[in-house]
Amino acid sequence: MSTETLTTFFALLALACAAATVAGVMILVGDRVTAGNSVFPGLRRALGDMSLWLAWVVAFVTTLGSLYYSLIAHFKPCELCWYQRICTFPLAVILLVAALRRDRKVWWYAGPPALVGVIIAVYHTQLQAFPEQKTFCDIANPCTNRYVWEFGFVSLPLMNLIALSFVIVMLVFSAQQTSQIEEKDPS
User: Fold this and answer.
1) Cα–Cα distance between 99 and 13 in angstroms, integer?
2) CA 42 to chain centre
3) 3-state DSSP helix/strand/coil percent for the chain, to nearest 5?
4) How do residues 37-70 score in pLDDT, each as one tens digit?
């Protein structure tokens, strides 16, 4: 399979993940706004039950995709790419362990790297969208270098931003599931 084909596939996965992230946020907000008097509580509980597994799948696929681009497609990661990887790669392991252990308090140790990764990815995404900016990255391997620019806007940092945003939303679902369980059984 060619790099171009995989890039289109990964871009489509990222866009589907973005749609799922927006849907997740809408469910969380809808549940809050309707005060549990609608379909939203059932959706929130259903997503809460599988949130850690969904977050792990996205973190795992993101890690594999990143490794594919550097090890097989031979795209040289810039400095900001490395910082994003530092935030993203451990999540594939952390979220798997949390899902296996049903650790609903994973937010405390998976949330901070995901949030830091989102901040870096936002900055990097806008750098690639507007590449005429000056950056602190190495001139030989600038952060504005677009290895991927699918559909005229999907870049590697945008894919990572979407993946980490999804992970954060799933961590919120998991944390809310914990608070619901604790409300029912305060012991």
Assistant:
1) 22
2) 24
3) 75, 0, 25
4) 778 888 888 888 999 999 999 999 999 999 999 9
> What residue type is 116 in one-letter code?
V
- Does the residue 7 lie in any domain? yes
**3-class SS of residue 150:** strand
For 82, other C-beta atoms within 10 Å of its C-beta total 11
Decide if 52 is inside a domain.
yes
CB 11 within 8 A of CB 159: yes
Please give the Cα distance from 5 to 38 (Å, whole number).
Answer: 42
Token pair in block for residue 77: 């990661």
Q: What is the pTM of this model?
A: 0.92
Q: Does residue 184 fall inside a structural domain? A: no
Residue 27 one-letter amino acid: I
